[in-house]
Amino acid sequence: MRALVTGASEGIGRATALRLAADGFEVAVHYRSHQEDADAVVASIRAAGGSAFAVGADLAHREDVSRLAEAVRGRWEVVDALVHNAGAYPRVGFADLSPDAFEECFRTHVFGPAELTRQLLPNLSRANPGRIVFVSSVLAYQGSARGSHYAAAKAAVLGLTHSLARELAPAVRVNAVAPGSIDTAVLAGDTPERRAERERVIPLGRVGRAEEVAATIAFLVSDGSSYLTGTTIAVNGGLRIG
Ligand SMILES: NC(=O)c1ccc[n+]([C@@H]2O[C@H](COP(=O)([O-])OP(=O)(O)OC[C@H]3O[C@@H](n4cnc5c(N)ncnc54)[C@H](OP(=O)(O)O)[C@@H]3O)[C@@H](O)[C@H]2O)c1
């Protein structure tokens, strides 16, 4: 089984790459700028007896997306799983949000992943079945003050998940995860007060770990989720219920 995990140089993507490798997948470890971190992920997969390679691309740039698809196709005829995890959460007030920043956010989270999916479709369709997981966010439902472009893009990701699930079935299953507050670089700027405030509103009383999102993604690409398509699993400690 072969899986491409985007944004796997750190955070949730890194945890997912390591988890899928432990589950027996060969893994394409995608990164944008942190090649040394991606190489370290590849090294730990190989040290544990697994198989992996690193591949760089900025998903906001169409030529890069094509190069990424070509690099993966060049190695694998069949792609069993595609995990669209790469992303960034730039905080900007709406009045200061430039059209370029808005567009870049959509290129990274929506247009790039959509085009990557389109280009890898023949390879995914050869799997039995192909499995796609999009990483959305609780903010797709709740909105984000100082992150309107991000929340809108993450909501678009769900629209894409629903549409592709219908259109690509039964050859490819398409699902999403919607994480809440997960302890990665995204939360690194939190003051202790901000962290305490976050945790106060989470019924499970703490932020999540990248490995906990990875475990849910691993389920969605496994045969254990064989009757799931078009669904979104919330991984948020109860932050949003229903
Ligand atoms: N952490 C949370 O609380 C949380 C909550 C909800 C949803 N999410 C979502 O979960 C996903 C992973 O987030 P994370 O917290 O693990 O973040 P992270 O630790 O900052 O990792 C982000 C990854 O995405 C890559 N990336 C960013 N922009 C990219 C671009 N334009 N093209 C290609 N790759 C790009 C980064 O690559 P380089 O570092 O190599 O540049 C990195 O590997 C994101 O989609 C995020 O929106 C996170």
- Along the chain, the helix and strand elements come as EHEHEHEHEHHEHHE
Structurally, how many domains make up the residues? Answer: 1
Architecture per CATH nomenclature, i.e. the level-2 architecture: 3-Layer(aba) Sandwich
Largest sheet features: 7 strands, parallel
Overall pLDDT: 98
Structural class per helix/strand content?
A: alpha/beta
State the distance separating the first and last CA atoms: 34 Å
Small molecules in complex: NADP nicotinamide-adenine-dinucleotide phosphate
CATH class: Alpha Beta
Q: How many strand segments?
A: 7
Count of discrete alpha- or pi-helical segments spanning 4 or more residues: 8
Strand order of the largest sheet: 3-2-1-4-5-6-7
Indicate the radius of gyration in whole angstroms. 17 Å
User: Uncertain runs with pLDDT below 50, 5 residues or more?
Assistant: none
Tell me roughly what share of residues is in helical segments: 40-55%
Oligomer: single chain
**Which fold name is given in CATH as the topology?**
Rossmann fold
Give the overall form.
globular
The CATH homologous superfamily name equals NAD(P)-binding Rossmann-like Domain
Beta fraction of the residues?
A: 15-25%
